[in-house]
Amino acid sequence: MFFSVFWKFFLLGCTSFGGPAAHIGYFRKEFVERLGWATETEYAQWVALSQIMPGPGSSQVGFAMGYHRGGILGAVAAFVGFTLPSVVLMCLFAALDSQFADDVVFQGILAALKLMAVVVILDAIWGMGRSFCQSYRTRLVALLGMVFVLLWPLGLSGLLLVLIAGAVGAVWLADTPTKTFTTPVSRSIAYASLGLFVALFVMAALINGNGAAALMAQLFQAGSLVFGGGHVVLPLMSEQLANFVSTTHLLTAYSAAQAVPGPMFTLATYIGAILAPDGGLVLWAVLATLAIFLPGLLLMLVGQHFWQRVGYYPRVQGAVNAINAAVVGLLAATLIFPILPASVTGIWQAIIVLLAFAWLRAKQPAIWQVVTVFVVGGVVSALF
């Protein structure tokens, strides 16, 4: 089971470009639609829960999926598999000083994969919208959620949207219950995770200086306090790591994280690698990666346990319905800005996106097939 979960997530980790919103689409397409590892309702509630927890949202969803499939070992397998390709590439960026980043073919492939991310997000919005916006009230929640995020595109807008939607849904949608997921996160695992998180957070707050322990402590605090995913962690890390790295290095790490597949929190991998002493690049990179991811993963286990304990109450289920609809609006807003302007810059690219979306809906190809088509297209466009 461990290898099976690891391999599926590893393949996605090699091909999941486009950031957290796209990752949600990749996971849904592969694990809900194609493999049937979870139901649409279970998956949507993991997504909703990840929106109100600090940490890397898409990695938390993958972690929950892995736990659902194979317990703690499955969760670890999902995290390692999805994160490993990005960690390796970020280490290479640090070691090679991004020497290949200006290569014409590389840039062509990157542009094509950005278009692919648009297609995958469109597919996620379409599928989740059909499942969770079936009534006029849930469609209205999704629409207002999209408008809210577009008008207030700040780091905490996603969290505020989910909290507001939950409060509204508890009152307005309490008469339209949905099923809750049944992932058996036991009390012992939940409390052990919470205890470990609190102990590590306190230890991190007490560590000072400029050494390896202090760096990992700052990264752990950043992973514990950031809401909204990889794009939001940059300003927090800029403040947390002011004594360790320059703004230039942080921006380079941010750019590199967007150029590789997988979670954007691996910008911490780059930071650890460039600060490592001779011979310690891999060790520092791995420790930095664990430091920033661990708090969000621990809290996801805690959140799942308490969510399933209260998820049977009508008002809680109404809140879940509203949050699911709000997440659809959040995905739509993220697609409109910043993903579309950064990916689709001409009429031909728009046509490619529409044709690929129609192909995805009609034929339901595997993700590797979609990636292959776009990579080949990127190479051809760069060379010719």
UniProtKB/TrEMBL annotation:
User: Which keywords, in A-to-Z order, does the entry hold?
Assistant: Cell membrane, Membrane, Transmembrane, Transmembrane helix
Q: How does it sit in the membrane?
A: Multi-pass membrane protein
For this protein, the record's Pfam families field holds: Chromate_transp
TM segment ranges: 6-27, 72-96, 108-128, 140-168, 188-207, 219-237, 257-276, 283-307, 319-337, 344-360, 366-383
Tell me which InterPro entries the record gives. Chr_Tranpt_l_chain, Chromate_transpt
* Cellular localization per UniProt: Cell membrane
UniProt xrefs under PANTHER family = CHROMATE ION TRANSPORTER (EUROFUNG) (PTHR33567:SF3)
The UniProt similarity line reads: Belongs to the chromate ion transporter (CHR) (TC 2.A.51) family.
Query: Per its UniProt record, what NCBIfam families does this chain match?
Result: 2A51
Its recorded name reads: Chromate efflux transporter
Per the UniProt record, the source organism is Marinomonas ostreistagni
